[in-house]
Amino acid sequence: MNAIKSEIYPVIWKNDQVLLIDQTRLPNEYSVVEISRSLDMAQAIKTMIVRGAPAIGVAAAYGMYLGALEIETDQRKDFLQKLEEVAQLLQQTRPTAVNLFWAISRMLKTAYESLGTVEEIKAILLKTAQDIQQEDLETCYAIGKNGLSVLPSEPHQLRILTHCNTGGLATAGYGTALGVIRSAWQSGRLLRVYADETRPRLQGAKLTAWECVQDNIPVTVISDGMAAHCMKQGMVDAVIVGADRIAANGDTANKIGTYSLAVVSKMHSIPFFVAAPLSTIDFELPNGEQIPIEERDPVEIYQVGKTVICPEGADFYNPAFDVTPAELITAIITEKGAFKPSDLSLLMSR
Ligand SMILES: CSC[C@H]1O[C@H](OP(=O)(O)O)[C@H](O)[C@@H]1O
């Protein structure tokens, strides 16, 4: 079997600060940003210093605690009112990943349900943020294990294509889709990963490739446009991606480019899996039509590094996510097991 390192934790609580791996500087520079204020945490999420649906949920939870520390009152009502303002600040950072809103709601619920003093509430908020982080790490290990049970049985060593980054950097650690890939590697079930570079922010080329190299997992980086060709050439046995928001019927919002991967996978009868924690499922949304799709600054399209690659006069469109219809998804792998999209309702209130 194969050993892995997988000690990549993008968010660390240490000495009354949050330490974030600066994911905008990887893979060329491993640097850590120290966050002590809720405003700085909001900025870190918006600028993608920390990114990845579960990871921004964990980051937002600590952002709520940092915001609570900034509230200087011992009056419960006043404290809760100001904590709502911190929640709004963090909710305005990125609209698609439901994990962010789930984590903020859980922190607010904790505060409202706590009957102690303001100081006692603050202490419980820290514990809740730490619980959210630990639970997500354990969830990723469970997703990794559950993913093994649905991977194709042949060939024994699989060639798995993935999109964007869904590893330790995108979660509390270990990863969702990349967590399944790690588990396959540890079990001797993986031959190679094909990582879409994932324009425009290049999370695949920069982050997934970096995580695979850290764990000595064979990885081939391809441009997004090559995925269909690789499938047509018979180079891919399965596709596994993450998710930012899954509607109740299984429609899934994920990094832009996921939908086209699903269409081509269907065309070539290649199983297409989504790996995500229950905190990514939005049971209040009946289908994917209402999932808010973040549109980011066009500079991400027309500038690569410091080089402008497009002429003056061109227009730009930069949606950060797209929605894959449930009928294109073979199974959704969660910490509770793998489910057909049509069976997601079995997971409600689990
Ligand atoms: C563990 S799934 C992470 C999910 O989030 C990513 O988006 P972003 O890099 O913009 O935060 C991408 O959609 C991944 O699939």
UniProtKB/TrEMBL annotation:
Signal peptide: none annotated. Its EC number is 5.3.1.23. SUPFAM superfamilies: NagB/RpiA/CoA transferase-like. It comes from the Bacteria. The active site is at 244 (proton donor). One of its GO terms (molecular function) is S-methyl-5-thioribose-1-phosphate isomerase activity. Keywords: Amino-acid biosynthesis, Initiation factor, Isomerase, Methionine biosynthesis, Protein biosynthesis. This is Methylthioribose-1-phosphate isomerase. It comes from Gloeothece verrucosa (strain PCC 7822) (Cyanothece sp. (strain PCC 7822)). The gene is mtnA.
